[in-house]
């Protein structure tokens, strides 16, 4: 099996090392793991692509490249430059330092990398490690992802739903903010919404008198609706969420058509 891995935390991020271990175990001794990751952190860029300017790519080691672009850019670079159009069998994105549950899905470059792979017709999985007080006390905050990741990815490949639709399925995995021994299991969960939290903005004045605006995140650990991803994560479960890039609100199509007729 040939696996392409990327992330949004950057080529030197510890979570990418964890993902490389997971990918190597999945690929097996006769497989290949190729890394194309952002040269610098790209958190929060979503599914951004560098459509209006070129990017540089550098080979750092055999099968290891850094690109000055987003995770989606890196997937495109991996497919069409590094692998010369030979699509990999699987794309893994992560392991993100921090959760990509709830509305974070919409902002996440980790998700964006997996989404681009799905749009290219490649099976794709995004992996993220929810962080919190318990993980802060661990020698390895990625412990849950490192230990549980290989078996869960393999189970998804063997038993998950993989379709050939235009907007094909891809998967979002979030590991809970706890030690491996405290993980209670895995639950399939819908994407939640943090009604108590949202991104905001805080202005600061620099020593030169110029105003700079900092984007601020909100609280992460309050529950979302029962059974949704944030809730199951804070309860100690790994969440698996099937996603599609189709943003159509299918549930209101018929009613809207009737109203506008």
Structural summary, described in words:
The protein has 261 residues and is an alpha/beta fold. It has one domain (2-192, 221-260): Stationary-phase Survival Protein Sure Homolog, Chain: A (3-Layer(aba) Sandwich), CATH 3.40.1210.10. The chain is built from eight helices and eleven strands. Strands 3-4-2-1-5-6-7-11-8 form a nine-stranded mixed β-sheet, with helices on both faces. Strand 3 and strand 4 form a beta hairpin. Helix 1 runs parallel beside helix 6 (143-159) and helix 2 packs parallel to helix 4. The termini are far apart.
Brief account:
By secondary structure, the chain is α/β, with parallel strands linked by helices. Helices cover 29% and strands 25% of the residues. The chain has a single domain (2-192, 221-260), classed as Stationary-phase Survival Protein Sure Homolog, Chain: A (3-Layer(aba) Sandwich), CATH 3.40.1210.
What characteristic shape results from the CA principal axes? Answer: globular
State the helix count: 8
Strand content: 15-25%
Distance between the termini: 52 Å
How many domain regions? 1
CATH H level, superfamily name: Survival protein SurE-like phosphatase/nucleotidase
CATH class category name: Alpha Beta
Question: Number of DSSP strands?
Answer: 11
GO molecular function: 5'-nucleotidase activity; metal ion binding; nucleotide binding
Main location: cytoplasm
Subcellular location: Cytoplasm
Binding site for a divalent metal cation: 8-9, 43, 96
